[in-house]
Each structure stands twice: as structure tokens, then as C-alpha cells.
Amino acid sequence: MIAKTRKVSDYKQLNTELPTVRFVDPERVYLNLTTSRCKEYTLDVKAGDHVKLGQIIGERDGCFFRQPVYATISGTVEDKVTMIDSTGIDVECITIRNDFKDTYHESITDRPDSVIEKMTQEEMVEIIKEKAVVGLGGSGFPSYVKLATEETIHTVVINAIECEPYLSSDYRLIKDQPDEIFQGLSYIMQAVNAKQGIIAVKKTKTELIEVLEREAERFKHLNVSIAKLGDYYPQGWEVETFKNATGIKVPSGDLPMKHGLLGFNVSTTESIYEAIKHNLPITKRYITVNGDGVKFPQSIRTRVGTSVRELLKLCDGFVDDADKLELVIGGPMMGTAVKSDNVVVTPTTTSVLVFRPIEYKEEPCVRCGSCVYSCPVHIQPVSIMQAVKRNDVEAIKGLEANKCIECGLCSYVCTSKIPVTDYVKDGKKKIG
Ligand code: SF4
Ligand code: SF4
Q: What is the overall mean pLDDT for the chain?
């Protein structure tokens, strides 16, 4: 149990240095039919049917979009089950038992470069929509909506900051697949006719900078530069990344596109490559398993639909009884604590963190102002918290709780160990 002696930074370091573990052949996958955005769905297959990798098996229905559900392995359809997704909610999933043949559906064919070179924005948008590509940094926002922008875009910014502690999935992706990232960036730039691309990365990640600069040289015609940004949280927040990578400050409430900027997470960029080049939906992703509660933390390349229980087994399991540990899906600052490991890897699952619990004694607020000084969107978390306690909806609105990006900093810095972010999140819900 080497975990006992490590510092937080050691965990990130460890997972970035170890090679990626490939776990792409689970016995079964569980494909979520519902999400926090899509509560309704249609299912086109039934138990006993055989499906192929990349076959559409149903459709999710969101408030403003419909999203095909794809089989991520070939095999036999089994029952529906309920599991937990990356947002911590119960989602309905359909089970597929793997036949370990990876038989591709007939629609999965490569597009020649000569065809891609002539593609228009509309054609690319249609593919990204059809292949259900979403923001893989955790947002899950449909990527086609961004790519379909009608604004004039001068710069595409790829966010490779991955600023939360413990996370290393983007790091491993960049190390393993830099060519695919640059290809994806070239497709995005072609779609919106952007004249330059920027890949934003932490200046401390010298190994990644080397890889990216070498690739930028290979793709010289694209005019891509590497922005080396500060190693602090929340550097990866889009507004902060744009400001430091381009010098353009996007005012609160404005869409970056209005300012000529279009941003994608680095994993999303790779998925855009897979969709356009290979006509593939998101079938695999990198995921970090980390924390002092897991015996052997690792970065894993796995199939979408894999059970997190399987991944934890691959990491030699827990250091203690599961009920004595805390499980977080996503980063430690913005992730969601879950009560069970009955979790499924969806396209937006960046990480699984397991921690030994730390006992905090919450004290009364001492009005120290630390939460106010550290808030990146310059609102007043402590005042919002008081308004939430009073259930004063007008005050919550007036204090602009809706601007909160849920970065978790106000809780992190709170002198009295108050979960201030939870209060602000409650406030956001109260004002809709
Ligand atoms: S979580 Fe707290 S610090 Fe972060 S944006 Fe919201 S109010 Fe500000
Ligand atoms: S950081 Fe905590 S103790 Fe200090 S003002 Fe904010 S809520 Fe109060």
C-alpha cells in the first residue's frame, strides 16, 4: 500500500509516467440509454439480438437534440440494468455480451483524405451530429452545435490543460495519439475556416510540450502553436484558457464564437478525428483511476460501457473495505461523490477517484473572505450561502449565483471547512 506515503502531486505524476493500460475487451458493456439531459429514449434491439460494433441500437431524446446510441462492441443484447453515470445519477443501460470478434457494422468505413479535403462545414457537422460526438472533458455538450457556428472564427483553441489534481487521461491521450489530435484539429479548422490553431497545455508538462511541438512542426501548414500556460486551478476553465492562450477576454454571458474563438477539449478533438476519418462514434476513451483508496492507480484506455467495478479490479481493488472509502467520478474539485461502484464508463467519464475519508469538522463562518477572493467569476459565495439559508431567491438572483462554474474553490479554501460550493449549487437550482 504505497498510497499511504504519497502527496497529491505524486498521484498525477505516477499516472502520467506509467504506460496506459489497455482494457478494451470487457465481458459485457452497459450502454446508457438515458443521461442527465436525455430522459427519454427509443430502443431498436431486444434481448437475444446480435449487434455489430458501431451499429445504432437506439436513440436518446434530449431537450433540444436527439442522439443515436451506438454499440461499442459486437455481441448479443441482454437485459436492461440501472447504473450510475459520470454525473452521479441513475441511468438506464442496455447490456451487450461481448463476442470478442469486434465485427464492425457496414457503416464503419474510412473516408479517403481526398474526400475529407473537399468537405464543407455542413457535411462535417452532419457527421459529428450523427456520430453523437460530445464534449469529453466532462461537459457532454453536443459538439455539432459548436461546430455549426455561423460566426467568423479566426482561432481554434484545443484545451489540453487538465487542471484538476489526480487526472491524467488527457495527458496519456496526447502521449499516445498526437497525430490523431492534430488531424482532428485540422478538420475543425477546415470546417470553420480558421486561420490558426492553438493547443493550450500547462507549461510544467515539458514532456507533452515536446510531443506537441514536434507534431506542430509536422503539421506546419496548419499554423498551430503551443500555448504554455500556468499550472494553477482553474486554468482549464474555458474563459481562463482563452484569455491566457490568445489574450482575448470573453465577457461573462458571451459565447466565445462571438469573439472569433472556438474551443474544444483535446479528447473531443480526437473523437472528431475518429468520426470524420473512420466514421466511428465514441467507442473508447482514456480514464484515470486514482487516489489513496485504490491499490494500483492507472490510466486505462477502455471501451465506453465498461463497468467501473471491472476497472477497479484491474487496479487490484481497494486498500480497505469499500464502505470505508469515498468514490468520486470526475476530478476532486468538480467531480461527483457516488455511494456505490455500480458506475458505467460513458463518453464523459474522465476518471474514478477513490479516497480514504478525511474527517472535517465544519465550523461557523468567520467572514474571512477567502471564498470571495478565490472565486474566479468574482461573485460572493459566502453571501450566496447566507441567502440560500434564508431561502431568499431574489437575493440569490441579485448575487448572480448563475455565474458560478462549480469549480469547487470556495469549499476548498474555506477556513471553516464549510461546503460552500454545495450552497451555491443549491442557489443556482433555486433560481433555475
Ligand atoms: S464554485 Fe465557488 S469559487 Fe467556484 S465559481 Fe462557484 S462560487 Fe465561485
Ligand atoms: S471562506 Fe468560509 S469562513 Fe471564510 S467567508 Fe467564506 S464561507 Fe465564511
A: 93
pLDDT tens, position by position, 23-42? 889 999 999 999 988 899 99
Test site for ligand 1: of 163, 375, 383, 411, most ligand atoms within 8 A of the Cβ: 375
Total residue count of the chain as it appears in this document: 432
Atom of ligand 2 nearest to the CA of 381: 6
* Domain shared by 321 and 180, yes or no: no
Q: Hey, whose CA ends up nearest to atom 8 of ligand 1?
A: 375
Question: How far is residue 33's CA from residue 289's CA, in Å, rounded to a whole number?
Answer: 24
Q: Cell match 481554434: residue? A: 156
Distance separating alpha carbons of residues 408 and 294, to the nearest angstrom:
23
What is the side-by-side order of every strand in the sheet holding 56-61? 40-43, 56-61, 66-70
User: Alpha-carbon distance 41 to 80, whole Å?
Assistant: 13
Q: Which residues pair with 93 in a beta bridge?
A: 32, 81
Ligand 1 site residues, Cβ closer than 6 angstroms = 374-377, 379, 381, 404-410, 421, 424
d(CA 180, CA 268): 11
Domain tally for the chain? Answer: 3
Do 121 and 101 share a domain, yes or no? no
pLDDT 10s digits, 173-193: 999 999 999 999 999 999 999
Binding site membership of 382 for ligand 2 (Cβ less than 6 Å): yes
Same domain, residue pair 287 and 395: no
Question: In the structure grid, which three cell numbers stand for residue 387, read together?
Answer: 441567502
pTM over 0.85? The answer is yes
Domain hosting 271: range is: 113-278
The protein residue whose alpha carbon is closest to atom 6 in ligand 2 is 371
Is residue 58 domain-resident?
A: yes
- The answer to whether residue 296 sits within a structural domain is yes
| 56 located within any domain | yes
Continuous H helices in 57-97 = none
Given 250, 278, 306, which residue is the final one in a domain? 278
